[in-house]
Design a protein that fits this description.
CATH architecture of the largest domain in chain A: Sandwich
Oligomer: homodimer
CATH topology of the largest domain in chain A: Jelly Rolls
Strand content of chain A: 15-25%
Shape of chain A: elongated
Mean pLDDT of chain A: 93
Chain lengths: 233, 233
DNA sequence: CGAACTGTTGAGAGGCTTCAAGCCTAGTGG
DNA sequence: CCACTAGGCTTGAAGCCTCTCAACAGTTCG
């Protein structure tokens, strides 16, 4: 249920590129390398669900995930995305709680599973690793706090413009200035915290105002300054 | 500017009660005890501000703080509260960033300042301390994520009811079922993320519905079940 | 080729915000 | 001791932003 059959390439099973593991010595890295397990995940696959017991955390070596919570009437609230170089599922693992978010594949992905015991070993063995973990969580907390302020104080219009800019920064543009991440209107709504129809209406207003161009799910960013202005940044 | 003159009692300068420091050995605790600095803070005092460079984190041994971010037009968004046993200012410290929140005294307080170097020493020296730090941040992140979902999906009415219940859980009730934390209507609005007038109107509706009673700033919780129902919990 | 999902547009309703005006309480200074 | 001021609290009215419902077009995929 969890894994897809075929194995990922050796390149995509390699964790040595992760900033988080940079300070490990040979022995520590060897153990991590031995105990990890990498697999492919197809678009649409759910890696873990709210309420699941987690046995380890995952390192993303390819693809994109959305991490969301299920709120009223099953409406998704997207908390963040994860891409190559990020780790997921670590929060509930560290807290020894059941997962309180769901992770779903948006773009075909490769994950390396690192067992809880390995995590604990690394924390015990290498203080620089612990510090790095701490910094990752603190970073995520900063973003969460700033998002709370935005949702609480800004209008839907402002938030949507801001989200487009954030997506641009996180996932870049291709050579045609089009967002490299492809989301449904509903998913956009579930980031911004609004109704799907509102996203649709606002996107076409942005288009009329020459801030973006639309071709189906592809969103082309034309006027960054203009979007910043709308977003009130 | 930062400290108030008189020194706190020895009892309020004692950090041995903190869960976070439980796993320290004698030497580690002695160094913490030697390097900490405790002082009194009067209501209204700002401990640190957005943009400040932090030299350490603080342990709260008495009083209540509000931690907030300043949004559009200077409107405060309260992110969380801190009370006895909590630590504050650690997020930006760990990330080596300028503070991105402001901490203000709501109830006369005592803080013990722990220098950055001491924090680093403890992380290097004691992996259990690091793990505990990690767990504290992860806990806060969980709350932040759940708050994002609430603000994004619930109505102001639902959120206000929920906030009252959260305040009840965090700060308890006195023997008359009155919330022990005293907030202005504006502060309540800055937690919920709404206008002051909306809070006022909703509070008097709650009163009419016999969920609460009001005597100035004192809020008496009468019908917990009813509030939970309104809050959609 | 049809089913299921996604996207679009319109209309109507209502929750909240904003503005404005007045009241109340507490602290201050004459 | 009392008037006075400032800040907090309350209420009303008007209007807008956003949501919901509904109908339909377009797309994708088995």
């Amino acid at each position: 249920m969890r894994k897809n059959s075929s194995l990922p390439s050796t390149e995509e099973s390699d964790l040595s590129g992760f900033q988080l593991f940079k300070k490990l010595n040979n022995e520590e890295y060897a153990r991590l390398d031995y105990e990890k397990e990498c697999s492919l995940y197809k678009k649409g696959t759910i890696v873990y669900k709210e309420g699941n017991r987690l046995t380890g955390f995952f390192c993303v070596t390819r693809g994109i995930f959305k991490i969301y919570k299920t709120g009223i009437d099953g409406k998704e609230q997207i908390i963040r995305f994860a891409k190559k170089g990020n780790i997921i599922a670590y929060r509930s693992l560290v807290s020894r709680e059941l997962a309180c978010t769901t992770a779903k594949v948006i773009d075909d992905a490769v994950l390396c599973h690192v067992p809880y015991q390995t995590l604990l070993y690394l924390i015990r063995s290498n203080w620089q690793f612990s510090l790095h973990m701490l910094q990752i969580v603190c970073q995520e907390l900063r973003e969460a706090n700033s998002y709370i302020t935005d949702i609480a104080q800004k209008s839907v219009r402002e938030r949507l413009a801001e989200v487009l800019l954030i997506l641009k920064n996180n996932f870049d543009l291709d050579n045609q200035n089009t967002l490299k991440i492809s989301l449904t209107r509903e998913e956009l709504a579930n980031i911004v915290g609004t109704a799907t129809e509102s996203v649709i209406r606002l996107l076409s207003e942005f288009k009329q105002d020459k801030l973006i161009e639309l071709q189906g799910r592809r969103i082309k960013i034309i006027d960054i300054r203009g979007l910043q202005k709308v977003a009130n940044i």
